Amino acid sequence: MTAKHRRLLILGEGFSHDPHYGKTMRGIIRYGPDPVVAILDSARAGETHEGIPVVGTVADALRFDPTVAVVGVATQGGRFPPAWRELLKSSIAEGLDVESGLHEFVSEDSELVALASRHGVELRDLRRPPIGLSVPTGANLEVDAKIVLTVGSDCAIGKKTVAVELDLEARRRGLESVFVPTGQTGIAIAGWGIAVDAVVADFLAGAAERLVVEGAERGGKLLFVEGQGSLVHPLYSGVTLGLVHGSAPHAFVLCHVPGSTEIEGCPGHPIPPLPDLVELHERMSLPARRAKVVAIALNTSGLDDDAAREAIAAAEAETGRPADDPVRFGSGPMLDSILARL
Amino acid sequence: MTAKHRRLLILGEGFSHDPHYGKTMRGIIRYGPDPVVAILDSARAGETHEGIPVVGTVADALRFDPTVAVVGVATQGGRFPPAWRELLKSSIAEGLDVESGLHEFVSEDSELVALASRHGVELRDLRRPPIGLSVPTGANLEVDAKIVLTVGSDCAIGKKTVAVELDLEARRRGLESVFVPTGQTGIAIAGWGIAVDAVVADFLAGAAERLVVEGAERGGKLLFVEGQGSLVHPLYSGVTLGLVHGSAPHAFVLCHVPGSTEIEGCPGHPIPPLPDLVELHERMSLPARRAKVVAIALNTSGLDDDAAREAIAAAEAETGRPADDPVRFGSGPMLDSILARL
Known about the structure:
2 copies of one chain form a homodimer.
Chain A: E1 8-11, H1 23-31, E2 36-40, E3 48-49, E4 52-55, H2 58-61, E5 68-71, H3 84-93, E6 97-100, H4 110-119, E7 123-125, E8 146-152, H5 159-172, E9 177-180, H6 184-190, H7 204-217, E10 222-225, H8 237-247, E11 251-256, H9 274-284, E12 292-298, H10 305-319, E13 323-324, H11 326-329, H12 332-341
Parallel strand pairs in A: 1-2, 1-5, 2-4, 5-6, 6-7, 8-10, 8-11, 9-10, 11-12, 12-13
Antiparallel strand pairs in A: 3-4
């Protein structure tokens, strides 16, 4: 997935501005190894997004010479909105490989497969689980590395970004650090990984175990594992707990958006106060490897600088843990906090 | 699955005596709608098991005129031990349909499929998820029924059995009760259901929601939902939490084996004390529908009558909740306790 000369067209139709469903696009633009040459979102055609031209059709994008069309959205339930079929067909017909991280596999869609074969392009599903998964064997507790898992109060609030930033900072310092991807965007960024939310439910913890074992095999003495969902999310909590137990972290970094009190998209489902979340995660960690929340990562993107600093101070006061926004203010201080507590 | 004239040969090779891996066999014998005419377990050939003849080969079983060979074991990881392939092939070659609840699907094994086609028999996978699953929609909170979920301190300690017994007792009393199956044995018993441990992990809670909606559609005003795994199980906790949140119970029945302090098969992974387990489940219930543990169901099968009664009294004293062994002493008193607290 990291071959040279890959030039990406990101399909963001309808979602390129969306803070939640556009998270795959943003992750790939910010951290991916391949250049993003255009973004498709017809309502924004002619604009630019972080300096990248936005186009209205696949044909419009061809002058930027893309080689791969990447599905840049993360829909609820992981299915394609109906209008997307035409976009995928256009991409294939224009000779682009298609890469998707949805649960609905492009490589199992007979119409798309036939079209891809006719046009000599590849269809790749980032969320397709590897074969041979099973339950954990106990190898997670024997991995020769310190494991840090990002967790959070909701979906789409920065768990992947925080893990990526901490890993980048650790590697800048010369530490043997590896980012461990557990979802479609992380896989697109790192070129390996398993989308743990797409495996057979019984093998959730087993997939997480396999990932930390592989992180160590890739040379990691320090593993930053991308978290998924939230223990308090009414839709995705099972994935979260399987990942918490299977990845057997030594420490948690708890991600949160200051002021948020309700799960996004789930009216009536509250987010508990930060101190409760800290205690809940520590309590739910494996008794065989108790993990502490060693830092609070706040996503302060909705606040001005003063308010962001106030929110950080308040989180520290409330929880007694170091807090910061590692994306806004740099991940160095948070990495220091974590290393001091591992 | 409940057609007339089904006569079952249970394939229990190597496991028919095993308290854990033989649980599918025991559930089908005790609660299934179809007669079990023989059990295959070569090491015990010639014996009887609960009055049922044990045979050494499929050919030996034919004099009992079976029509379906049912895989009666629940292996860790849900795969077939290698020697089982021959058993399945013999069953097919002798003209028996094959029904399996393992994760490794018989209906996707090209050799078995070809053989089944040649012999005109069917291969059925009880754990195959239905199509069209997705995340919960909120319908779980709108089901017009009282939902009781069995949970537990470990796997294979009676969560399904307790749910079945409570449902039977409720129906004996004329209540509109439905047992909601969430695993392969429950499905074999009830003839419907979804094995929530076999669905795509993201759809765990969605599958659980669909099951309680269907339970109400089947006429249930009182739903006894079969629990899976344990919140404190290092292998299967994700499935458990997805089921807890997706089925949105009004009450829990907590199953436990008195005296057990470690997860079976997982040395070093402790089971917390009962009062901690009670509090943990109540805390992990959906904030939008808080659920209490309304009864403790002890599996006292390893104790004599006096010790069983002592264990029950101790559990009541420790937790302040009514406790009983509904299999040993009848499920009437426990149902009374539950109904008084719903």
